[in-house]
Amino acid sequence: MKKKVVSILLILIFTLLTAVYVIKSEDPAALSSMPANIKYGYFSAAIALMVIYWLFDGFLLMKLVESVSRKIVFKHSFHISMAVQFFNAATPFAGGGQPVAVYLLKRKGLTYGESTAVVVIKSLVWQGTLLAITVFTLILNFGYLTKNIAGFFPLFVIGVVTNLALILFYCMFFSRSLMTKIMNGLCNILSKTRLRKSIVKMKENLNREIALMASALKKLREHKKEWAELLLATCVQITAFCSVLYFIQAACEPSVSDFFDLLTSQTMVTMISGLIPSPGAAGGAEGIGYIFFKRFFKPTSILAAVLIWRFITYYLNLLIGGVFCLINKDRPLKLKKRAESTANKGAN
């Protein structure tokens, strides 16, 4: 009971500090320009797209866990993915979500190696798909971007280079020898500190987990049909997320622009704002969003529109994700093979 109270207090404090930091970077005057005749049906549709985004995230995690011979129900994978959404939103570069995912999957019964493999593949697929969609929209809508968004290309290039660097980083985990060298090198550095007494055991544990991770990654690579499912599901997930702007415009403006122009704009903003080193890209995402979105809204409603967009695509992750952090319960996963074996014995 005491541990649960401490956990709740930590999450509430973390959420409050993050919210205060982010709210300071928002423009309070945007609230006064909120359209009085906002269409709440379209507003609800924009929120529904975020729910679809979350549901697909839980589905992707479930499929990946099952690919390493573990059995997990969607409810549990969804709880984990929502907790990860909270930490992604609350940390710079969304860097807190992946370690939390590894930790929560370990608490559910996977090894650290298996958990890392699942998170690496999921991150690699998401990052690669986002980059592919962004490049695809650029090629098809290059004329629109060059005509309407002054100076967008340098930002795009920086975004692409950064995303490629992340993809290469994830690819490093596929090399067992490279990861072993890196981890052993870190252990050698730590052996010169006060931790030297526990380094030998740490080295053994790390090498064991690297072996388990390599084995899990090999299993994941062998599921070619599931790779197609993962890529398709991630495309739908990202498209749903980047379609939110269309419904925000429909909610705030008397008429809507071309859907593909809006999709292109939010896709570009999503990729580029990942470079901003603040929780939830606070401060920078709003500025980049303003640059890309201003032609879709009247001058009196653009700030409000950006604030609505941030509420749906960012603040909801903090609010709803924080709730799931509180209600998430640790339940061990079962080995899929073991469960199937038991079922077969019962049938015989």
Largest sheet: 2 strands, antiparallel
The mean pLDDT is: 81
Our measurement of the CA-to-CA distance between the termini, rounded to an integer number of angstroms, reads: 44 Å
Strand percentage: under 5%
* DSSP strand tally: 2
Total separate domains: 1
| Unreliable sequence segments | 337-348
Structural class per helix/strand content? mainly alpha
Order of helices and strands: HHHEHHHHHHHHHHHHEH
* Count of helix runs: 16
**Share of helix, binned:** over 70%
Give the spatial strand order of the biggest sheet: 1-2
The Rg value, from CA coordinates, equals 22 Å
Principal-axes geometry comes out as globular
Task: Give the SSE layout.
Elements: H1 2-25, H2 29-32, H3 40-67, E1 70-71, H4 74-90, H5 97-107, H6 112-140, H7 142-148, H8 152-172, H9 176-190, H10 199-222, H11 224-242, H12 244-252, H13 259-273, H14 284-293, H15 302-327, E2 334-335, H16 336-347
Antiparallel strand pairs: 1-2
Helix pairs in contact: 1-15, 3-4, 3-6, 3-11, 3-12, 4-5, 4-15, 5-6, 6-8, 6-10, 6-11, 6-13, 8-13, 9-10, 12-15, 13-14, 14-15
